[in-house]
Amino acid sequence: MKQLDFWFDPISPYAWLAFERLPQALEGLSYSIDYRPLLFAGLLQNWGQKGPAEIEPKRAWTFRQVAWLGHLQGTPIDTPAQHPFNPLALLRLLLASAPEGRTPNRQQCEQVLRHVWIGGADANDPDRLAALQAELRPPRDPASDDVKQQLKTHTAQALQLGIFGVPTIAVDGRLFWGLDALPMVAACLRGDPWFDGPAWDEAGAPRPGVRRA
């Protein structure tokens, strides 16, 4: 049985689509999975990037594409009333829903992701957040220092691994980024010989090239 880590931030529509698609994409394969929330903005800051929604033409394309992809795979998806939004409250609530030192389970992750991506409401509406917290009944205080530190630790761990975007699935030291990487994850779990040869390392090897000043 292979161990998978699913790194995500509920701010990402691709995280929702990949989360929903994952069981079907990996059907028949033996694996266990940890769901690891992180702060996507921390990745962007570290790598010197803007988020897709911060670049207007890219924002428009992103939400057109995810609407199509949701239609294609049969996953409902509605753009929240405000996006981008600050996901800290949701991330902390999600981590607080798991016992100390543990990661949230799939049902808890689904509740938070559906809160954001179903219905098109404001993800940070105080009444909605209160209702979500009542549903999750977290055993820890989402505003506690240990929960805040756990989120910082998760984000730092992701950066140490070289994660730059969400969702990212980590398998056997390899990172697979994005919804469209799910077939690669499945092939890796099936033991596709491509992953045992030099192709993986050769394809990702650095090469000389022009760099912006």
Give the biggest sheet.
4 strands, mixed
CATH topology-level fold name: Glutaredoxin
Q: Per DSSP, what share of the residues sits in E-state strands of 2 or more residues?
A: 5-15%
Q: What general outline do the C-alpha atoms trace?
A: globular
Strand order of the largest sheet: 2-1-3-4
C-alpha end-to-end distance: 46 Å
Total DSSP E strands: 4
Indicate the radius of gyration in whole angstroms. 18 Å
| pLDDT averaged residue by residue | 96
Spans of at least 5 consecutive residues whose pLDDT stays below 50 are: none
| Class based on secondary structure composition and strand pairing | alpha+beta
Say which CATH homologous superfamily is assigned.
Answer: Glutaredoxin
| Second-tier CATH architecture | 3-Layer(aba) Sandwich
Q: What's the order of the H and E elements?
A: EHEHHHHHHEEHH
Instruction: Enumerate how many helices there are, as a single number.
Output: 9
Oligomer: single chain
Fraction of residues in helices?
40-55%
What is the C-level CATH assignment?
Alpha Beta
Structurally, how many domains make up the residues? 1
